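Hi R.,

Here's the chain you asked about this morning:
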Amino acid sequence: MPSKMIPTRPVSENESLLRKKFYENIAAQSDLMDKLGERLLTLELGIPGLFATVLKLTRGEDATLPINAALNLAFVLWLIALILTLLALTPKKWKVDEDLLKQDPSKFSEGLGIVDFFEQSALYKRRLIVISSVLFFAGIFSAVFTLG
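And here is the predicted structure, written out as tokens:
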């Protein structure tokens, strides 16, 4: 069978720049999740304190708030959200094979490729931050029912 030549051309500057930006974006995803986690952490530390301050200001000096299930639930949800956010911000050790660019997903237990490392670390952080956000806002919703 005669071999057929496949025409090729050098990669253009635009294509090279797009590839570079693509890989920079993959590498930056984990950093973006860290920044989002830091902002969420600020909210998670501030809202419970703001909640207590508003209660103190609106109910007066000697006012008390009955401890009910909604109040307990709000603070438990806020605490779990805070823990998940701290987990997302805490560095995790990943097994990476530096000789591989991309690993077969069924072999992740043997080690991640370099691209997989950036994708999996961002995915890990994103999952924790999304769950944390949902729990945090559920805690805010629960706190509304403590004022009754």
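One quick note: DSSP finds three helices and no strands in the chain.

Cheers,
M.
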